[in-house]
Amino acid sequence: MLAPGSVIGILGGGQLGRMIALAAAELGLKTHVLCPDPDSPAFQVSTQHICAAYDDFAALDRFAAGVDVVTYEFENVPLATAEFLAARVPLRPGAKALAITQDRLAEKTFVRDLGIETAPFAAVDDLPGLEAAVAEIGLPAVLKTRRFGYDGKGQVTIRPGDDLTAAWHALGRQSAILEGFVSFSREVSVVAARRADGAFSAFDVTENVHREHILHTSTVPAALTVEAARQARSIALAIGSALDYEGVFAVELFVTGCASSERVIVNEIAPRVHNSGHWTQDGAVTSQFEQHVRAIAGWPLGEVARLGRAEMTNLIGADVHEWHALLAEPGARLHLYGKEEARAGRKMGHVVRVRRDVTACANLPENDGC
Ligand code: AMP
């Protein structure tokens, strides 16, 4: 267990690292951020930082010498980096979570082996492999690169009649996975925390709406049946246990079926704090960032109860120019990431609106503390 005053090392200096550093400071902890980008938003709020590449092992050695635990804000930390650090200082979550979630094929196989439903999928390594996968899974389907895909990048939807050669080239002829197209009614996520001793806690299920493949709004509680919400939570519990997970993670799910047959299907696991959990900063007793810090410090997990009906809206690119009006809006809570250039598609900040007149925890009566 870390003592107050300990130093948390954070790999990655984006907005997630920044918000972890802010939460750590609230609890009397120091932070040390390593990131190759000199303009990292997390550098502005951390106790110390090193601007270095993730494969600069001399820098990693200095970084490890000055921290009590290392965590990360993104899943594409090179495995060699994770292993190098884990040999010197506790890495939480561990390298296993990275190895599985960095590769869509490994991730889907891991989830399926736990007996949890995913879209049907098949590995694709070349054009004949794509033809075989299409014959097996059928169309429409989504072809995704196995690695480095995010916000809809690295994926192509293939519809009946589409040219498979063109799809294969569009994806850059990389190792891929073909997934059956899930005709979902909604997309939801569970943000949960687990400690090394198995203590587990999940925030209420969040409903997510994307625009141009980027998360636009997260609303909580999600409009889904009590049974589907319970299923989502138990899926997160099973995934966390199987990964021996330490820290906060998110499971993104598709909702299918309706009424009594409604169920959830796993799309993706994020081994980190997650954009769909930002509402917790103003809409829950404990934020996901504080929860992550507590979990990796080995401290008691915080209360996850919701304070009302919450909605988080991302400020993407020029949306951030609304900052003044948002500050003037009663009840709106503005969070800006300190990024200078409001480029199209860039996450610049978010706003959380909480309506406290709605009974909290309406859809998860079994949740701790509700
Ligand atoms: P991903 O990068 O896997 O999270 O996918 C980005 C988005 O593409 C998801 O949030 C869905 O809206 C859509 N998508 C991904 N996979 C599928 C699928 N198998 N069926 C239908 N839609 C999908």
Annotation keywords:
disordered C terminus, Dna Ligase, domain 1, Rossmann fold, binds adenosine monophosphate, 9-stranded antiparallel beta sheet, D-amino Acid Aminotransferase, Chain A, domain 1
Brief synopsis:
The chain has helices at residues 15-26, 57-65, 79-86, 95-101, 104-113, 127-137, 164-170, 226-242, 280-283, 288-297, 323-328, and strands spanning 7-11, 30-35, 48-51, 69-72, 121-124, 141-145, 155-158, 176-180, 186-194, 200-202, 206-211, 214-220, 247-256, 263-270, 309-316, 332-336, 347-355. The protein has 370 residues and is α+β, with helices and mostly antiparallel strands.
Would you write up a description of this structure?
- There is one protein chain.
- This protein is α+β, with helices and mostly antiparallel strands and 370 residues long.
- It contains eleven helices and 17 strands.
- It has three domains: 7-91, Rossmann fold; 120-180, 2-Layer Sandwich (Dna Ligase, domain 1); 186-367, D-amino Acid Aminotransferase, Chain A, domain 1.
- The strands form three sheets. Strands 9, 10, 11, 12, 13, 14, 15, 16 and 17 form a nine-stranded antiparallel beta sheet that branches. A four-stranded parallel beta sheet has the order 3-2-1-4, sandwiched between helices. A four-stranded antiparallel beta sheet has the order 5-8-6-7, sandwiched between helices.
- Helix 1 packs across helix 10.
- It is globular.
- Residues 119, 142, 149, 152, 179, 181-182, 187, 210, 213, 252, 267-268 line the site of adenosine monophosphate.
